[in-house]
Amino acid sequence: MPDINKTLSENKTEKIIIPEKSPDKVLSPEILTENTEEILKEKETVLHEIEKFNAGGGSSSASIVVNNEDNKRKKQIEAIMEEDLEEIYLKMPVAKQNEFKIVGEKTVNEINSLLKEIKLNIKRIVNLIIKWLMIIPGVNKYYVEQEAKIKTDEIIKIQES
């Protein structure tokens, strides 16, 4: 078993076995590098957004109010999407849980953006939720469609209020 303290630069062809995971989960340096690049891109995007916010006079009370409303709506969307899924989530493997969580957060942000638009695209919201729910291993397609429609109806109620 390779020494996990060994740096990637010492031996780039060596595969690294992560001890917390099962032995069949072997990560090559290429995969680790891809993930690092993705994380750095996300970090750069966030920093860019912060700079834009600060440059645009982000301290005005109007932007704070809009930001609070935006956060409130995001929390409401999250609550609707999480509803009745706790047991299913806990039964998923850890890797699927992480993927489900990340895709769920992106879905919340996309739905929140769609709710800001003048013309509401309901079909797009349904499709986003279906795509998110299909991550659940072994899930029934009809269950996903039904849940997506129920959750979409509840999300639309947020927009109407």
List the helices and strands and how they pair.
Layout (H helix, E strand, L loop, with lengths): L15 E2 L8 E2 L1 H27 L5 H22 L3 H6 L2 H23 L5 H12 L7 H20 L1
Antiparallel strand pairs: 1-2
Helix pairs in contact: 2-4, 2-6, 4-5, 5-6
Characterization of this structure:
With 161 residues, this protein is mainly α. It has 6 helices and 2 strands; from the N terminus they run ββαααααα. The chain has helices spanning 29-55, 61-82, 86-91, 94-116, 122-133, 141-160; strands at 16-17, 26-27. The protein has a two-stranded antiparallel ribbon with strand order 1-2. Helix 2 (61-82) packs across helix 4 and helix 5 crosses helix 6 (141-160). The protein is globular.
> Strand tally, please?
2
Proportion of residues in helical segments:
55-70%
Order of adjacent strands in the largest pleated sheet: 1-2
Low-pLDDT ranges: 3-9, 21-27
Count, helices: 6
Portion in strands:
under 5%
Mean pLDDT level: 77
In N-to-C order, the SSE pattern is: EEHHHHHH
Number of domains in the coordinates?
A: 2
User: Termini, distance in Å?
Assistant: 59 Å
Rough outline: globular
Instruction: Give the class from helix and strand content and strand pairing.
Output: mainly alpha
Largest sheet: 2 strands, antiparallel
Rounded to an integer in angstroms, the radius of gyration calculated over CA atoms is 20 Å
